[in-house]
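@channel sequence for tomorrow's demo:
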Amino acid sequence: PVRSFSRTVDISGFRKFAGSSKIVTDLKRRLAEVAPKDLSVLFLGESGTGKTFAAKLLHDNSSRKDKSFVSVEMSSVSESLAESELFGTVPGAYTGAVKRSGRFAKANGGTLFLDEIGDVPLFLQAKLLRVIQSRSFEKVGSSKTISVDVRIIAATNRDLEAMIKAGTFRSDLYF
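C-alpha cells (generated this afternoon):
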C-alpha cells in the first residue's frame, strides 16, 4: 500500500504493471484510487506507453471486473461505419444493413474502451457525448432508445487541447 491524502491505497491489484520507481508507483496509486470509482477516464500519452494495458487493469480492479471489457480501436473504424460499430443497426437502416449489436450494447454492465478517441469523427463526437450524459442511445435506423450502464475509458496519443482550438475535437466531450 502507498500513502495518499492521509489514507492507504492498496496497489496490489496492479502488480502486472512492471516497475517500482517513484513514477511507476505513483501511477499504480492513481490507478488504484480511480479503479473502484465509476468515473470515465481519459489516458493521454504516446503510442506504446501502455494506455490499453492500464485501461484493462482499471477494469480488472473495478466493480465491473466480472462483466465485459469491450475495446474498439477508433482509428481503424471507417467514418462511414463508426456509428453502426458503436451503436448497432437494425435491418434496412441502409443498403445491406442487418440486425447488429454495437459496442455499447456489448459492454453493457462493463467497460467500453475507446482507443484513439482523438480519431473519432466530429459528427460522432456529439453522439458519444449524448450517450455518456444520458446513458442511452438508438441503433442506426431505429428510434427505440436503449439504456446502458457502461464505464467509458478512452485513450489517445493526439493533443486534444490543440484539436479543440482547431475545432476538430469537442471541448464538452473532452471535459
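heads up for whoever presents: The first helix runs from residue 22 to 34.
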